[in-house]
Amino acid sequence: MENVVKPICRWGITGEIGAGKSTVAAFITQLGIPVLDLDSIAKQLMQNNEYLRAQIKAEFGDDAYIGDELNRGYLAEKAFSGGQVDRLNALIHPAVYEEVARLESKIADQGRKIIAKESALLLQHGRPKDVDFIIWVQSSREIRRNRLSKRPHITRMDLDARIKHQSSLHLSQHLDKDRDIVLHNNETIQALHKQVSELTSQLKTECDTLLESRI
């Protein structure tokens, strides 16, 4: 029997580091939409995928791992402070793409019609053709820096390097003004929750219309 590809409406959740992407993703999950955290998937693969581990060691040296554990501090310094982020991403992205495709297929088989993907670099190579709606989470630079300073295991040098790198990419230029949404996260968590709730209802309706057109 021929496999039937089930129609899926895909959302992307992205924005610069510290803007509140993960908080928005958590709210959307609470509202019943499955969210794939691409950055967490990448970290899991870097830790557990033997082929990817070998590639990273060959590119960045054996110090990229301490025993079986990923040496996050060392790798972050090499990538962000050493200007080698693109080299690292080129190794990781194929493995992430394959894993995300597997997970999306599994979720679709469960009868879900909407899947969201959260990633800081969702727009790094332009707007993905397979994403129907993108939610760009935006906060002021001062607020983002303050949030990041409270994270454990992140040095000021690393923080500045990450902010500088992502800001230099100008990722928001790839947004489609007719389809994508900019979500401002400069106020309270309650205000953000209200925005996300309203936005989710809006996008669910738009997805219903979109999926009907694909049948």
Features:
single chain; 215 residues; 7 strands
What does this structure look like?
With 215 residues, the chain is an alpha/beta fold. It is built from 8 helices and 7 strands; from the N terminus they run E-H-E-H-H-E-E-H-H-E-E-H-H-E-H. The chain has a single domain (9-210), classed as Rossmann fold. The strands form 2 sheets. Strands 2-5-1-6-7 form a 5-stranded parallel β-sheet, with helices on both faces. The protein has a two-stranded antiparallel sheet with strand order 3-4. Strand 3 and strand 4 (69-70) form a beta hairpin. The mean pLDDT is 91.
Strand content: 5-15%
> What name does CATH use for the topology?
Rossmann fold
Mean pLDDT: 91
Level-2 CATH architecture: 3-Layer(aba) Sandwich
CATH superfamily: P-loop containing nucleotide triphosphate hydrolases
Task: Detail the poorly predicted runs.
Answer: none
Spatial shape:
globular
| Tally of strands | 7
- What about the largest sheet? 5 strands, parallel
Q: Within the largest sheet, what's the order of strands?
A: 2-5-1-6-7
